[in-house]
Amino acid sequence: MLSLLLLGLLAQSARSSPAPRAAPSPVSVSLGGVTYINQGLVAFGLIPSNATESTGDTLGGLGSAVAVKPGTWRMQADGTYAGTLVVQPDRGFNVLTTIDYQARRHELSFVLSPYTGSAALSFADAQKTLKLTYLNTTLLSERNGTKTSGLDPQAIRAADPGFGAADPTADPQMPIASLNEPHLSVDAEGIVINADGTYWLSDEYGPYIYRFSAAGQLLQTIQPPEAILPLSKKGKLNFTSEDDPDTGRGANQGFEGLTLDPLTNTLYAILQSGTIQDGAAQFTRLLAYDVSQLDVAVPLIGEWVVPLPVSSGGKVRSTSELHFVSPGVFLTLARDGNGHGGSGTDVKYKHVDLFSIANATSIAHTDFDSAATPVAPKAKLAKGVTAAAYASFLDIADPAGLARFGLHTGDPDDRTLINAKWEGLALAPAGVPGAPDDYFLFVASDNDFISTQGVSLGVPFDAGEDVDSQFLVFRVTLPGAAAGVKAALGL
Ligand SMILES: *[C@@H]1O[C@H](CO)[C@@H](O)[C@H](O)[C@H]1NC(C)=O
Ligand SMILES: *[C@@H]1O[C@H](CO)[C@@H](O)[C@H](O)[C@H]1NC(C)=O
Ligand SMILES: *[C@@H]1O[C@H](CO)[C@@H](O)[C@H](O)[C@H]1NC(C)=O
Ligand SMILES: *[C@@H]1O[C@H](CO)[C@@H](O)[C@H](O)[C@H]1NC(C)=O
Ligand SMILES: *[C@@H]1O[C@H](CO)[C@@H](O)[C@H](O)[C@H]1NC(C)=O
């Protein structure tokens, strides 16, 4: 479908536009009878690989999750846009081994000056289209102030008495670094900021969803159904990220994506790829929780199978993020691992795609929530289960778009090569008269803290190369998104 549309658009532009054609040229896709349009790349910015934050550590891993802070987005008189981005690093510089990195979030202020010209900007000038400035850091702790850790969870802390009852202050069995080091292990990947300043964070280890206070103290924990928990054959939890469990989420394949439908107060989390028992990594799961009441254990109200894209060679493009668009419709970030800081320069698939659960089957509270009953045994979806409808949408690594901002795919492997790991999505309204459905889509990358002048837990390190934290901004047309975006940004 997309390729037909693409061919149509290309044929059209070949017929009607004289060279040099105006850039960027829009690409559209239809899902559930609605047409969504990618208007192209309009801004690029970065935080240098050697930047440091208030604790003295390298300011890295920024794009694991991003959100525009409610109440900060504004259009300025000179036609630029400004606001604050909240960014969520994962578990620190862990290229060699996991480290005792306290989970944290940072605030960055930004000025966005969208560039729609066709002439190619230099790499230096391109960075003026999205200026990012570090503001501050909030460190995360448990309820009693004990700091969290990024260390691989090799042990388990018993559930609080009362877990499972309607008590949000009771915790399930928790991943901890070790019995001697009973710190909660967090590998943060998703963020949702609530209107009251508290926020939800999704993680890879549990995979759990935590709510923290604005000051960074743990308030609440959501444990997913048994089918998703990392269990041994004997049904014992083992949260390590060093080996796959026998059932549940794969190692390092936790809740990569988290988003809120602010109109119904539904919190959605997506697993990076299918569970171990669902053999095929292609069929992942989306979960929905009703978070309209926060002083109770929040109920699971929906669960759907989402089919991830697969390469012609059978490689599954796992999902790294999720963003609510309109009831039943989501953006997702599916990609390969190639690019700067990744495994080679041959970038094949880095997309922000769309999916809809409008006609999909909810499997919440069915046998598929148990570890014993896979929903996709031997890579085939179980009878009677309809998966979400998936549509390929926006190519982050489109070479023509990147070239306008001094960036590229392929060799050489330098700081103008597009980064490998894109993991954060945020939306804000373009506010352009006559284009009420147009938004800016922020896409952020995780640089894995790779720097030749790094600092980790106060100790200098040299990771052998420099990978900046790159941010891209696209203009997109998303009919139906207005109410959700406005509510999320407090507009
Ligand atoms: C859901 O089904 C209806 C009725 O068949 C159809 O009109 C609609 O396009 C479908 N939506 C999606 C997202 O597939
Ligand atoms: C980062 O590196 C650049 C180039 O080497 C240098 O000019 C800058 O001062 C460094 N910044 C920090 C915070 O060390
Ligand atoms: C971070 O900076 C913003 C903007 O100045 C401010 O509103 C916020 O309170 C600061 N947060 C912390 C933790 O200092
Ligand atoms: C903080 O709470 C955790 C979890 O209940 C507990 O294991 C730890 O011992 C507490 N630490 C302190 C200093 O009270
Ligand atoms: C978890 O599994 C690993 C091996 O995969 C093992 O070394 C470790 O002891 C297990 N942890 C627990 C708490 O059972």
Automatic annotation (TrEMBL):
InterPro entries: Phytase-like_dom (IPR027372). The keyword Signal applies. This is Phytase-like domain-containing protein. Residues 83-449 form the Phytase-like domain. Keywords: Signal. Residues 1-16 form the signal peptide.
